[in-house]
Amino acid sequence: MFILDELFTLVYFIDMEKQLKLKTTDNHVIYGTLGTSKKVSTTLAVFIHGLTGSTNEHTFHNAAKLFPKKDVDVFRFSLYTGEKGGRTLSKCTIKDHSDDLNQVLKYFKKKYKNIAVVGHSLGSPTILRSDTSLFDTAVLWDPSYLAGNRGDMPTKAKLNGREVYIEEWGTEFLMNPAMVKEWQWFNGENELDLVANLGKPLKIIAAGKGILIKGSKKYVKVAQEPKDLTIVKRATHCFDEEGTEDILLDETLKWIKKHR
């Protein structure tokens, strides 16, 4: 009986998802998935993944299952993808990400009364550099910045005569030098004016075992009300530890519903 119920739920959820393709202003394609509630919802949460991330990370995938059941639709989109017309990470900048986010928000602006943006890691600079008039509230998951003492900086390299940076996290990733320069600007201090002038309800959820808590506290200190900080004690940066994702999604959903 349990298996049948589980299968029924899975089929039902797939029926409520829609694949979308949006054109960018520079002739690329944004690929995304819209998950909708059974009843028409006036609230949309737009998820922005971090560096080397994807829309199918467990946090985004499970939010897309949970939120529509709680009357919050979900759109998760790829900042780069191997699909036709999609961007390539090594040719991206944070500005590209912000421009694409703006494109997504403009598409949904007339369709929803309230739009929340939820950014993980480098998704935070993407949100802070975007057109903040296009959304109503923001949630940042362990927001990324590069302080001067960070030891995980990408290294310079040459590839077919082209300068790139290599980010090595077990798997190696190529990055655009322009993106690295933008990322370095977000050093935990420079971006505080962006946070202070956000002018939207701001929730930050930090990983208690991560290295970004200091910046998260600074962000909340300078942000306008309403604002809030939750530190998930046992969590590392991607909230992989048992039970930490539950806290992450619960806190996010409560904030979105409170400020719609």
Structure overview:
The protein has 260 residues and is α/β, with parallel strands linked by helices. The protein has one domain (2-148, 188-258): Alpha/Beta hydrolase fold, catalytic domain (Rossmann fold). The protein is 32% helix and 26% strand. The protein is built from eight helices and eleven strands. It has helices spanning 2-15, 58-66, 94-109, 123-128, 177-185, 192-196, 213-222, 244-258; strands at residues 17-23, 29-35, 43-48, 73-77, 114-120, 137-141, 155-159, 162-169, 171-175, 202-207, 227-232. Strands 1-2-4-3-5-6-10-11 form an eight-stranded mixed sheet, with helices on both faces. Helix 2 (58-66) links the parallel strand 3 (43-48) and strand 4 (73-77). It is globular. The model is unreliable at 1-15 (pLDDT under 50).
Keywords:
single chain; 260 residues; alpha/beta; 32% helix; disordered N terminus
